[in-house]
Amino acid sequence: MCHMIGEKKMAAVQWRSRMRNYEAELQRCGPEAALVEFGDYHPLKPIMVTDTKTRRGARKGSTSSSSSSSSSAPADPLSSMLDGTDPLSMFAAASASEAPVMSHSASMGDIGRKRKEKDKDEEVVGLDFEPWSAKRGEILARFTTTEKLSINLCMGSDRGKAPSPGSSAVSEKVRTRLEELDDLEEGSQRELLNLSQQDYANRIEELNQSLKEAWASDQKVKALKIVIQCSKLLSDTSVIQFYPSKFVLITDILDTFGRLVYDRIWTMCSDPRPLPDSFTVDDVNDTAKETCLNWFFKIASIRELLPRLYVEAAILKCNRFLNKSGIQETLPRLTSMIRGIGDPLVAAYTRAYLCRVGMEVAPQLKDSLNRNFFDLLGTFRQISGESVQNQLVQQRVEVPEYLTLYSPAINWILQCIAYRAPEALLTEMMERCKKLGNNALLLNSVMRAFRPEFVAARATDFISMIKDCDEAGFPKHLLFGSLGRSLACADPPESERLTILNEAWKVVTKVRSPQDYINCAEIWVEFTCRHFTKREVNTVLADVIKHMTPDRAFEDAYPQLQSVIRKILTYFHDFSVLFSMERFLPFLDMFQKDSVRVEVCRSIMEVFIKHQVEPTRDPVILNAMFHICKTMHDSVNALTLEDEKRSLALLIIGFIRMVSFGRDFEQQLSFCVEARATFCNLESVLVQLIHTVNQLAMETNRVMKGSHSRKTAAFVRACAAYSFITIPSLSSIFSRLSLYLLSGQVALANQCLSQADAFLKAAVSILPEVPRSISVEGKLRSSESFLLDFINNFLATLLVVPDHPEHGVLYLVRGLLNMVQDYTWEDSSDAKVRVYVSALPLLAAMSQETYLYSIPKVDSNETLYGGDPKFLSEINKLCETLIGQILDHLKALGRDEQSIRRQGALAFSLFGVLLAHGDLRNNKLSQLSVNLWNLSHKHGYCETRVSVRTLEYIKHQAQQPDMAHLTDTVQRLALQSRT
Questions:
Q1: Which contacts of 944-950 are long-range, i.e. CB under 8 A and separated by 24 or more positions?
Q2: What's the predicted TM-score (pTM) here?
Q3: Among residues 135, 221, 747, 824, which one has the fewest Cβ atoms lying within 10 Å of its Cβ?
């Protein structure tokens, strides 16, 4: 043990520790009590700043001000810099002085009237309105086709040119416009055939880019040509299943065109000053008006109805530049024009686009939107007409599938009409739907578009209407699904809820297709959880299992099944109730795909950790949660990412922390033993289990008030054994070190001396395994600072650890220092010597008659040796050896100019230790301290402020009766300049 300690004789230094009276030192260092007189002023008292105004009728120059503090209070330094006024008050006063004088009643009346007019004219759509952009992706994903598509474009020649700048004759302009439009409609035909759906979408996107490029290169006619030709494509229903997606793609181009035209005209009005958003017709200059009118003339000259309608609707907003009532007059005209479209599907989507534009530019004009809806009702008769039926036969499309094509258009139209609509209008629309009779498509859209509160209040009426619908045209389970969505957002009358659930579930449970069934059942699960108990929810889960288990249908419905779990967890936070449902765990067994099963378990654990406030010992909860945590743990393999491991471990740790068996400590330990075997692949979980067991041992100590019985003594030793067995399985060396030390401290606190020795010896034995660099957040860093922190903590613990009778004096201290000497430190590191410096205060503390701190019922070395001279001699020899090692290192640092700064810092550190812990009445020790002071200041690297404060401390200490010898020492210490 002593190949370093005890072999080297240090005749030059004779160490002797200074005797300490810790209680007296603590009293001297305590803060002095001072009486505080509380008056009107206090630095933490809030200051109230009030506006200062001149009183009406006061003498000239006199002011009246208010303040929260008395006149004798000190002035606020911030307010004094502003001469009594703050910037906000100055701005307010300036704006008030510049405001025109008017009577209060007149001004308030004008403001109120203008505000009402503005609100009426400029009503905007709020955030509660779901925009078209939110529906776009869903439509494209839902309405797909494998049929081949075609694009038939009419690309005109370039002979149509704009009139020269000098030409002003109206006839010339008209002729030019007509020639351009003739080019558009009589140009060469180009048809792209056999396009897949993706090819079609790509081609439409190319046209959109071509439109932007043509516009950017000032080819306005070409841009209009592209828009007209794209609009014509909306009359083609040859692949009817794809029509809703085609509508989405092509109206994107129309939106782009409308935005480009509007921005161009708006820019023409912004010279020299920008045009405000709330501009009027009077703010628009003549050039902009003429350009705007020119666009409308060009569009009016388009021969075909559908492109003329779409293109004019796209630039509807531009009517603002021409006259105030332009939009109000144009919307009814365009609505009436749609009646000329023969195909009901094409007409429905044209109305949807007009409503889309109308809600954007004039949401307050609801009359035109309502007319669109009532016109739409008339077109439903066409669906059963001969032309539509022939088309369906030709394309081999069934009527139910055809009817679903209308859904996006009708849903959008109804959403626009129902937005902030009065109750009377919604009731009227509902009555009109009743009169049509047997129109499931329209009824479905009404339930999805109307406010949930409106639908919920009339839920039984809607159920009656659903019953009257024909099952062949539109499946009833889809209608009940739409009704369920509304009831998930708003509550129906309480007396009707059970009836509603029974009526709905009668239909849902009869659905044969597993996919259709689960799509509808998922919606009604939320209604059941929201309004009923675990009994009804358990019944619903049993029905879901019954439908989804045959032929493993659940494998194609994992998203819907996950949604069911989420909805149950939203409403059931009492896990004793949740796990008492007979069908809940069998329902979880349907998640047999590993990734999905883990995701479901994760969602359950997150809710458990969030809502389980009190620790639990409920066996039902523990068994179920243990099974869920095991599922998450078993998903970990060599390919699992570290972030994923960390996430899963945190959830499992959250569960472990919520398990408490109260005073049944043995049961708690048994749980930890089982958890260790189950979660062995997640290191952070094992660390938590060790902390849990250590906490359990300390809780036992608290309950027994430090006096263990035979049974509790055996139990805390079992806890120590648990930790001692578990720690070696950890891969992180610093986790092992810190847990060995912590567990050793816990063992000491519980009077388990042999176990504490084993922990501390194990910590010392693995010190050589510490790598020189470790990975911290993905970057390699030196492990030196971590190792030094651990050793300092270890040294602090060794003060209270009694020596083992069979291993000699200070065997743990010597063992630690030998490991430190044998450790391979970095070449340019002072870490080893810093450990020696840190060990000196420990050895000095061990020399005291009474230790600075101790552990109840544990006899430390102060009691074992009782100040034995041999024990003190061993300490002094060890200190002398350490000081010799430190001095040798300081001497070696002095040979290298690059190490001078390190030499000074280390010398000053050792000086501080000698000053605090050495007996400087010893002349050699006193001289050594002076030499160290001079060495640390020799090259001017020591911080002057620290040096000055150190000298002041020594002078203060020299005034104490037992420290008078420091007077001579302080006179020999001098500050040196950095020159």
A1: 944/975, 947/975, 948/975, 950/912, 950/915
A2: 0.73
A3: 824
Which ranges of 386-496 does DSSP label H, i.e. alpha helix? 386-395, 399-404, 407-418, 423-436, 440-449, 452-457, 459-468, 476-489
Q: Are 724 and 755 in contact (CB under 8 A)?
A: yes
How far is residue 482's CA from residue 494's CA, in Å, rounded to a whole number? 20
Sorting pLDDT into bands at 50, 70 and 90, what band is 172?
low
| Token pair listed for 313 | 């609707």
Residue 151 DSSP one-character state: E
Q: Which of 590, 575, 670, 582 is nearest to 625 (CA)?
A: 575
The whole-angstrom separation of Cα 415 and Cα 134 is: 13
Give the model's pLDDT for residue 126: 75
Give just the sign of the alpha carbon dihedral 839, 840, 841, 844: positive
User: In the block, which residue shows the tokens 């001692």?
Assistant: 724
Q: Under the phi-then-psi rule, with left for phi > 0, alpha for psi from -120 to 50, and beta for the rest, what region is 572?
A: beta
pLDDT in tens, 321-363: 888 877 888 888 888 898 888 889 999 999 999 988 888 888 7
* Residues in CB range of 635: below 8 A, 6 or more apart: 594, 597, 598, 648
pLDDT one-digit tens code per residue, 394-413: 888 888 788 888 889 988 88
Measured distance CA(572)–CA(531) in Å, rounded: 11
Q: Is the peptide bond before 272 cis (omega within 30 degrees of 0)?
A: yes
Q: Do residues 645 and 679 make contact, with C-beta atoms less than 8 angstroms apart? A: no
Of the CA atoms within 13 Å of residue 642, those in its CB half-sphere come to 2
* Banded model confidence at residue 190, pLDDT cuts 50, 70, 90: low
Enumerate residues 6+ apart whose C-beta is below 8 A from 628: 588, 601, 604, 605
Of 522, 440, 450, residue with least CA distance to 481: 522
The answer to whether 561 touches 584, Cβ cutoff 8 Å, is no
Three-state DSSP state, 149: strand
**Two tokens, residue 65:** 């001000």
Residues in contact with 382: Cβ distance below 8 Å, sequence separation at least 6, in sequence order: 344, 388
Q: What is the pLDDT of residues 462-501, one digit of tens each?
A: 998 888 887 666 788 888 999 999 998 999 999 999 999 9
Closest CA relative to residue 295, chosen from 153, 177, 215, 207: 177
Report whether 837 contacts 886 (CB < 8 A). Answer: yes
Q: Which two tokens stand for residue 589?
A: 């067994």
pLDDT given at position 153:
61
Mean pLDDT for the stretch of residues 679-697 = 96
Q: Contact at 8 Å (CB) between 4 and 839?
A: no
Of 77-81, 211-215, 779-783, the poorest mean pLDDT is in: 77-81
pLDDT of residue 168: 43
C-alpha–C-alpha distance, residues 690 and 742, integer Å: 10
pLDDT (0 to 100) of residue 494: 92
How far, CA to CA in Å, does 146 sit from each of 193, 195, 244, 696? Answer: 14, 10, 15, 66
**Coil, helix or strand for 188?**
strand
Separation between Cα atoms, residue 960 and residue 798, nearest integer Å? 31
Long-range contacts of 433-438 (CB under 8 A, 24+ apart): 433/465, 434/465, 436/377, 436/380, 437/468, 438/468, 438/469, 438/470, 438/473
Average pLDDT of every residue of the chain: 83
d(CA 218, CA 92): 50
Residue 196 · residue 149 · CB < 8 Å? yes
**Residues 763 and 741: beta-carbon distance below 8 Å:** yes
**pLDDT, mean of residues 427-444:** 77
Q: How far is CA 461 from CA 415, 426, 466, 473, 521, in A?
A: 20, 14, 9, 20, 21
